[in-house]
Write a structure and sequence with these properties.
Elements lengths: L1 E5 L2 E6 L1 H10 L1 E8 L2 E10 L6 E5 L2 E7 H9 L4 E3 L6 E6 L36
Parallel strand pairs: 2-8, 4-6
Antiparallel strand pairs: 1-2, 3-4, 5-6, 7-8
Helix pairs in contact: 1-2
């Protein structure tokens, strides 16, 4: 899960496997290590929540999304999910295959409908003979 913070906005970009995990578990967590300190950030689908919001407590940023809205986004064709007036503003997007430059993790991205580029098949897993 990629995190981008600029001024009063937060943007998360999720790969295909992360969207699947969010749909199954209702929560994704990532972290950034700064020596002996860790900044944790999470995306959570929450029941009884009226609209998207971000909380910053201690060393943790929590992006909260209403459960039904978040699940619909995970399972449907919708590209992004955004806050309506929250501060900071929130934008959550599905991560697409790049238009021109191939990346090693493109297999875990969504098809780019604008360019027609589809993700390649995942790399073959190494088989252990022991």
């Amino acid at each position: 899960m990629k995190l981008r913070i600029q001024d009063d906005s937060i943007r998360l970009r999720l790969r295909h496997s992360e969207v699947e995990k969010l749909a199954k578990t209702g929560r994704l967590v990532s972290s950034i290590h700064f020596g002996d300190r860790i900044l944790e950030y999470s995306l959570e689908l929450v029941t009884d929540l009226a609209s998207e919001r971000a909380d910053f407590v201690g060393d943790s940023i929590r992006i909260l999304v209403p459960y039904g809205e978040g699940l619909e986004w995970c399972l449907g064709p919708q590209i992004s999910l955004s806050s309506s007036g929250a501060s900071p503003t929130i934008l959550i997007e599905k991560d697409f295959v790049r238009s021109a430059v191939e990346e090693p993790d493109d297999y875990d991205r969504f098809e780019n409908a604008r360019t027609g580029r589809k993700p390649p098949p995942p790399p073959a897993k190494l088989i252990s003979l022991s």
